[in-house]
Design the sequence.
């Protein structure tokens, strides 16, 4: 084994042992250990705590201790039997799929658009990001005002354009409220999609496009055969992240409709909160949260798999 | 513990700075979670005065938004780090007490000179009792009246000096003033799917002559149909299904709603922002029944189990309800739960406060029942089903009645 050059230049014994330590396997075991401990305490503990709660009968009285009556899967059975379950599950599915799909399409469109060089393009791209910086509570309040039936701007604009004659009860109509909160959440999420996709686009080497152009590929074929395949890792990451973000949406819906009217815009996180903090049914709330966690975990695992599959062998 | 000592010193220190001469010494610190928000609120003034006059006990206050009180208390219970004293929404007392979270205070109240039962409004006193035991002391109360935009009434050809006194008159005025195409409505209530919706509709049920056990009776149906008609005929906005009471008051302040049902907590901002002539009127009664009923809101003082300074916390309660402190409530848009104080003479629009005060005799508690959240949820669902037209009022109320019946069986509620 030959000594690295720097050791011969500055070969005090202390430095040598330090460098040997830094090069050894002990150091990365320590580093991994610290990270694992961190995850175990700050991520693992709440998950385990929640899991335990979901199979117990939890009341305010026994909340501080862990010794509560075990009820097995009763909380889950009650959840499945709840007349709201199917409605909330359907709402969550529609909300998530619509958000992920539309946010992606709009985000990609914007990312491609801002890739064109026109005056102030990067400034405007920055401006689009403002939506992502606002707290969801503020966005919910603003959209609640925009979508108000009587003095809301959206109805006013649609009426002004002659598109509708009467009023649309965006939030008060149970058949529209989910659409209303979905629109607001899409607006919230598009900038995030755009910026990740823009970063992905920037990472595609320009010479590939040039070569393709020389070979006679037009913009559409370049998009289909170069942009999309090379963007795939970004897209996978983005879709899983958006799914996870959307499935835990809470503040925005809570502000806009509180899940109503008649639970028409209620999704699992809102239901879980209301179960725990308004009905004081902590076991039920925990069961919903655990089910949500399982769903999100599936998405996360799919993402990890796809990333591993992408990695060059 | 360290944090508390630090807070004590900090509080004492700043008090000493403020007064210049006070020694920085305090034996006991009462941690208090309260709903007093803005800096001039009477509750905060009372806390500051307490800290100035007492050397043996100091209050370390923390403000919590009203809507988050339950959640914060639950979190505190879960972590075992409870405050010594907390203000909580009156219908939640039974839920918390029923699950063993609150200290029983009956013996202390009985031994207290200042807290005689006779001083309090009976309705607010009732909210603190669960199965014969007392778990809290009423703090401040509120109730509902209709805020009336007199200019809108006049413009619509209604004499503001002859306000509606019955449901029929109320509906007639609302019909006359509504112009939904222009976004103007005759009447505003909150039918939101939260406790606020229950709070607003329950008085109508009680005025109808029905109760929780007779929800689907013709009387109960009439109480709900009243609201359904308002919305479906365009006298009230569809948005009442998702708007909170404060948002309904926004609409009233903007001149988009002639009469709006709300409480005295809105007075500070109304007095500041209003741009038209206005007054408040008592909730009209149902013709032929003439039953006066209105809502009873407000907070109570409660000591969570596990509190470290129960004695000192109880002294704070006694201080806050002494006439001098209680009288300050009015300026904050709240009403003291004790009957022996009057609004200060220099209060702007004192007659409005007196109006609210006079309605407290009809204010009925929600519950008390540890099952109140579920009862309330069933009511909210029925209200929304009927207003959205998903179910006729009778059918929606029959479902709610069936949901509520076993809950009442477990915990009977007197007078409901």
Sequence:
């Amino acid at each position: 084994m030959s000594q690295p050059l720097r050791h011969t230049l500055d070969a005090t014994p202390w430095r040598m042992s330090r460098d040997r330590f830094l090069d050894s396997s002990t150091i990365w075991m320590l580093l991994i250990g610290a990270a694992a401990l961190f995850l175990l305490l700050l991520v693992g503990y709440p998950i385990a705590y929640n899991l335990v709660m979901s199979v117990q009968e939890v009341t305010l009285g026994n909340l501080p201790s862990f010794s509560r009556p075990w009820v097995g899967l009763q909380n889950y059975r009650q959840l499945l039997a709840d007349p709201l379950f199917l409605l909330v599950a359907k709402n969550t599915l529609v909300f998530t799929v619509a958000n992920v799909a539309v946010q992606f399409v709009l985000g990609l469109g914007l990312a491609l658009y801002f890739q064109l060089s026109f005056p102030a393009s990067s400034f405007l791209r920055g401006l689009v990001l403002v939506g992502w910086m606002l707290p969801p509570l503020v966005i919910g309040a603003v959209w609640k005002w925009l979508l108000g039936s009587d003095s809301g701007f959206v109805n006013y604009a649609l009426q002004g354009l002659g598109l509708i004659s009467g009023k649309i009860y965006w939030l008060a109509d149970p058949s529209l409220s989910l659409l209303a909160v979905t629109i607001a959440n899409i607006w919230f999420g598009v900038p995030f999609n755009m910026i990740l996709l823009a970063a992905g686009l920037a990472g595609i080497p320009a010479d590939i496009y040039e070569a393709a152009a020389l070979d006679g590929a037009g913009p559409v074929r370049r998009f289909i055969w170069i942009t999309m395949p090379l963007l795939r890792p970004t897209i996978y990451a983005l879709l899983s992240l958006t799914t996870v973000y959307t499935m835990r949406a809470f503040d925005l819906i809570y502000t806009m409709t509180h899940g109503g009217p008649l639970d028409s815009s209620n999704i699992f996180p809102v239901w879980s909160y209301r179960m725990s903090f308004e009905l004081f049914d902590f076991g039920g709330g925990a069961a919903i949260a655990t089910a949500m966690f399982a769903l999100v975990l599936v998405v996360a695992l799919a993402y990890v798999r796809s990333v591993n599959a992408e990695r060059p062998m | 513990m360290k944090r508390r000592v630090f807070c004590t010193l900090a509080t004492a220190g700043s008090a000493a700075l403020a007064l210049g001469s006070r020694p920085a010494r305090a034996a006991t610190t009462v941690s208090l979670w309260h709903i007093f928000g803005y800096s001039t609120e009477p509750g905060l003034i009372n806390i500051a005065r307490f800290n100035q006059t007492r050397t043996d006990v100091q209050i370390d206050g923390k403000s919590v938004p009203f809507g988050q009180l339950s959640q914060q208390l639950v979190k505190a219970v879960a972590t075992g780090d409870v405050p010594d004293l907390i203000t909580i929404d009156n219908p939640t007392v039974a839920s918390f007490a029923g699950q063993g979270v609150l200290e029983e205070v009956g013996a202390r109240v009985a031994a207290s000179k200042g807290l005689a039962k006779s001083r309090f409004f009976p309705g607010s006193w009732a909210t603190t009792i669960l199965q014969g035991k007392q778990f809290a002391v009423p703090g401040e109360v509120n109730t509902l009246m209709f805020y009336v935009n007199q200019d809108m009434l006049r413009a619509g050809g209604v004499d503001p000096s002859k306000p509606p006194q019955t449901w029929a008159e109320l509906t007639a005025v609302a019909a006359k003033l509504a112009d939904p195409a222009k976004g103007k409505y005759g009447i505003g209530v909150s039918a939101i799917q939260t406790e606020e919706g229950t709070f607003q509709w329950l008085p109508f049920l009680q005025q109808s002559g029905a109760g929780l056990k007779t929800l689907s009776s013709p009387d109960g149906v009439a109480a709900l149909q009243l609201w359904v008609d308002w919305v479906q005929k365009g006298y009230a906005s569809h948005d009442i299904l998702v708007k909170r009471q404060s948002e309904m008051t926004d609409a009233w302040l903007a001149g988009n709603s002639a009469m709006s049902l709300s409480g005295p907590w809105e007075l500070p901002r109304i007095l500041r922002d209003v741009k038209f002539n206005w007054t408040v009127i008592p909730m009209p009664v149902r013709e032929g029944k003439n039953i006066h009923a209105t809502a009873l809101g407000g907070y109570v003082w409660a000591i969570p189990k596990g509190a470290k300074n129960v004695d000192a916390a109880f002294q704070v309660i006694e201080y806050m309800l002494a006439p001098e402190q209680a009288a300050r409530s009015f300026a904050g848009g709240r009403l003291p739960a004790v009957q022996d104080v009057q609004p200060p003479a220099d209060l702007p629009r004192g007659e409005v406060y007196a109006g609210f005060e006079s309605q407290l005799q009809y204010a009925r508690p929600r519950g008390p029942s540890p099952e109140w959240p579920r009862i309330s949820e069933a009511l909210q669902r029925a209200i929304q089903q009927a207003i959205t037209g998903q179910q006729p009022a009778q059918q929606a109320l029959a479902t709610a009645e069936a949901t509520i019946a076993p809950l009442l069986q477990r915990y009977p509620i007197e007078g409901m």
Q: What stands out?
A: The CA atoms of residues 7 and 16 of chain A lie 7 Å apart. Chain A touches chain B at residues 59-61, 63-64, 144, 148-151, 167, 169, 171-174, 177, 256-263, 276-280 (CB under 8 Å).
